[in-house]
Amino acid sequence: MIRLQGISRYFQVGDQSVHALDGVSLDIGAGQYVSIMGPSGSGKSTLLHILGLLDRPTSGRYFLNNRDTTDLDERAQAQARLEQIGFVFQFFHLVPRLTAFDNVALPLVLSGTPPEDRNDRVRQRLEVMGLADRIHHRPEQLSGGQRQRVAIARATIMNPAILLADEPTGNLDRASGKDVVDALEALVQQGITLVVVTHDPDIGSRAARRIHMVDGRVAEDSMPGGL
Amino acid sequence: MIRLQGISRYFQVGDQSVHALDGVSLDIGAGQYVSIMGPSGSGKSTLLHILGLLDRPTSGRYFLNNRDTTDLDERAQAQARLEQIGFVFQFFHLVPRLTAFDNVALPLVLSGTPPEDRNDRVRQRLEVMGLADRIHHRPEQLSGGQRQRVAIARATIMNPAILLADEPTGNLDRASGKDVVDALEALVQQGITLVVVTHDPDIGSRAARRIHMVDGRVAEDSMPGGL
Ligand SMILES: Nc1ncnc2c1ncn2[C@@H]1O[C@H](COP(=O)(O)OP(=O)(O)OP(=O)(O)O)[C@@H](O)[C@H]1O
Ligand SMILES: Nc1ncnc2c1ncn2[C@@H]1O[C@H](COP(=O)(O)OP(=O)(O)OP(=O)(O)O)[C@@H](O)[C@H]1O
Ligand SMILES: [Mg+2]
Ligand SMILES: [Mg+2]
Question: What is the structure's pLDDT at B66?
Answer without folding.
Answer: 92
